[in-house]
Amino acid sequence: MSYERSVSADPHEFSPETVWEVQMPAIRVGAGAAGELGYQLDQLGTTGDQRGLIVTDENLVSLGHVERIVDELDADGFDVDVFANTEREPSISAVEACIEFVREEMGDAGYDFYLGLGGGSCMDTAKATRAVVANEGELLDYVAAPTGAGEALTQSGAPLILLPTTAGTGSEISPVAILSVPEKNIKEGISSPHVRADAAVLDPTLTTTLPPDLTAKTAMDALGHAIEGYTTHRYDDLLRAEDPAERPVYAGRTGFTEMLSEKAIELLSSNVRRVVNNGDDIEARGAMLKGALFGAIAGLTAGASLAHAMAYPVGNNYHTYHGETIAALTPASTLGYNVASDPPRFEKVAKMLGADTTGMSTREAADEARKEFVSLQRDLNVLPSGLNELAGITADDVGGLAESTVESQQRLLRCNPRPVTKEDVEEIFSDALHNWE
Ligand SMILES: [Fe+2]
């Protein structure tokens, strides 16, 4: 396993990173924020009489959210088309269909603006479509090798605004669009600052229709981003980047990301029971959206780690939802194996999750984070008790899963605060089969 750019460099050559940065779209948050889309588009330089595209799915059309946004834009003089054929965990061909739709309707120049309305799948489809139309050519030109040609994007294109209807994925602020390659059972991405949206509009009234199980699953993903970001290595544990363009996307935690993680863990863990039990609780839905946003900025800047690395092979092979996979893996990985990397830090996580650690040693208190997280999951009553209940995974499967994690997820494993071998990953998978009986 390679640890280049890590603390294991020769101490005589070690020159720590001294610079950090945060990149994000313009962000508008709160009940009614979606009603200000016309103003938002004006701010991005798009004026009325322009034609835009809403990328969404059939479910959001039938729930009435799409009509509401179309009416809002119509009242402000914008003309919009709707592409509602987005797939869950979109495949390359599903995104190609959206690009094709744009070119058929508007020619190579594409639309004057784009909106992605929905969960991570709709937002990622919108991001990839806008990027490919702006840069010309085909989707596969820009998908990471070996699936695609891995060409660099050079243009951002027409304005893109994302409106999440779940609170979890963080796609609204991330520079990545994830695409599935069903014939290879893998996921690939297009990753570039040009993929990031220009604006994110987080309106809790768009999230009230999310059913309890998806609410809980996306919340676990959001908590994963916040906790993984809070417990990963520091930015100055890395070697200084000679060229700013070489600085990694997952650059380690900073005082800024820690502050966001802390607020995210608190908001998410104290409101998730409310939204799962009463989806119409706008105040709690708003808190969840904010928690997910803060967690995403923290986690996706500092870096996700072990649970996310292990989640990809599980999702690819068993077609599970990302959030429920993170839910099943987090106790054994982030809050199990990784605790030894920094017990005082995990003691803080335990307290943020609501644990009473009075009279405990630091290590005992750190271990409470896992117990508190599992007890939260059990209260929600819609999450799997581990990988076995999630997808029928047994002890016979953990060797293969560990192998594909180590083979394909070095980018994330390198961010893990505690070094991991294939044998470690195998043990963690075994530990994650049953989080409770
Ligand atoms: Fe995630």
TrEMBL record:
Keyword vocabulary terms for this entry: Oxidoreductase, Transit peptide
Single GO term (MF): hydroxyacid-oxoacid transhydrogenase activity
Matches recorded under InterPro entries: ADH_Fe/GldA, ADH_Fe_C, ADH_Fe_CS, Alcohol_dehydrogenase_Fe, HOT
SUPFAM superfamilies: Dehydroquinate synthase-like
Residues in Alcohol dehydrogenase iron-type/glycerol dehydrogenase GldA domain copies: 26-204
Coiled coil (residue ranges): none
UniProt key word Repeat: no
Catalyses which reaction(s): (S)-3-hydroxybutanoate + 2-oxoglutarate = (R)-2-hydroxyglutarate + acetoacetate; 4-hydroxybutanoate + 2-oxoglutarate = (R)-2-hydroxyglutarate + succinate semialdehyde
Domain of life from the UniProt record: Archaea
EC number from the UniProt entry: 1.1.99.24
Start and end residues of each Fe-containing alcohol dehydrogenase-like C-terminal domain: 254-432
Keyword Transit peptide found: yes
Recorded family membership: Belongs to the iron-containing alcohol dehydrogenase family. Hydroxyacid-oxoacid transhydrogenase subfamily.
Stated name of the protein: hydroxyacid-oxoacid transhydrogenase
Taxonomic source organism: Haloplanus ruber
